[in-house]
Amino acid sequence: MLPKSVSTLLLALSFNVLHANAASKKQWSKRSDHLYLPKEVHDYKNATAPNNVTIRYKNPGICETTPGVDSYSGYVDLTPDVHVFYWFFESRNNPAEDPFTLWLNGGPGSDSLIGLFEENGPCMIDDNLTAVYNPYSWNNVSNMLYISQPVGVGFSYQQQGVGSFNSWSEDFHYNSSEWPATGRWPLSEPLNTGTIDTTDLAAVATWHVFQALLATIPKFDAKLGALSPAREFNLFTESYGGHYGPAFYTYFYNQNLKIENGSMPGYPLKFNSLGIINGIIDESVQAQYYPEFAVNNTYGIKAYNDTVYSYAKFANNMFNGCLYQIALCRASAEGNVSYYHADAPITGAELTPGVKQVCNEAADMCRDNVESPYYFYSGRGVYDIRHPYEDSTPASNYPDYLNLGEVQDALGVTLNYSGNNAAYYAFQNSGDFIFPNFRLDLEYLLDQDVRVSLAYGDADYICNWFGGQAISLAVAYTHSDEFRGAGYEAMVVDGTEYGEVRQYGNFSFARVYESGHEIPYYQPVAALAYFNRTLYHWDIATGEKKVTANLTSPGPANATHTNSFVPLTSSYIQAFPSPIYPATTSAY
Fold it and tell me: Any signal peptide, and if so, which residues (predicted)?
């Protein structure tokens, strides 16, 4: 544990003591004159979990360059056809005593290696595809685990195939004259579909991966020490992690209770905190804030005109609009047409093909007509309203880095790396996007007195802070009234104000200034402080007060800070597919 007196900047500095076109052909095995595939891996070490799950691992020796701090990467082979990639980093501080944190990106289908390389991992990748030390890495204060999930995402696979992806639909095609191969890629089964299409199913799969790693990491990392029931566990996530976080944590929490009472075998932990960054938690609450943020944000930016603004609002509220169809989804899951229970989650047993279709149509209605007009008419960034639509911030150099032969060899992977996978459309087609489950899970966790910290960068559009604030006020739990009655207090780190925080006891909502979707990239000092204060139970605003049951942030009822207007420096008009008609021929 780090004392409150250590400044975040000093904390970071104290540790600073010291696609396939970029690949190295020398490191790859040759397949043809133009295609190179990753080499087979023969130097894995193996560990076996008590449930006979095999863990393959290597010490890659890349990314984390702090002397004496190790990392391990490899696969959890859950079954003969389910292989989940992970990368574990020891804490730079005290791996034997520091907590254990799982980081998940969202999507669905966004790999957690995004967070590792662009946000909170030990290194970032520059334009020369060189790993650069990150002094603000979250493993300054915690052991960190990154998992590529669900299977088929990142380096995780059920099968491997040589072929290429349709860049729009993300469907995989085996090598052919019509679809020339671009690499060896991870596949899910059935092909282009998979079997995991909801957050709740993903939670179950990730729990098994997590438990297998808990059982085996101490075997190959002696510095970590035994993962005793006193070791604290934290889950932090982002974006669609507004679904993942509450659902995964709730499932993990309840499984942990079964382990503790002896009703099932496993490795118990002390469940400590859940953090969500710019999360989409409940579309029925957050959808209305897409048009509001587009034109009434604190940057003085009017992203589209009044006609588009009126359309998006109308689409949300009209008969058969977004909110109406969300209600149809929830009612159909209960088998009714006229009502539904607001506090009822949608379960797997209720997700018949027909219910999935109703919920999928609702998700399409909301995303296409309430959220998406901004993408077609604003010219501004999805993840940062200050930037143009074709935004290169942060620079995503990590996929090319992961396609370097020497990097793949170090990690122990035999696959090319791509952001393409079937997960996004699988989840979209199930209607998971608009389920109420995740707000309900959040309410349950708050009633169990779990530490929950929400943080939203105030320049992000897709999961904007207007909607995040609305969610924080909408959750119904034991202390809802006290939370709503708390004020906004300045979030200060080393004398600099980075945002505004409302907090009551274990629940907090932070708006972070001058930050897009990925807060740790835009505001690394504030993000590390937010993480550290959450883990070690200091107030989010100052880091100087220990959290108590009735800790209440003082200040005004509204977050009133305004930002400087940022004009667009370029314009962008969405391209539409153009039809190609058969050539005309003369009539005889």
Answer: 1-22
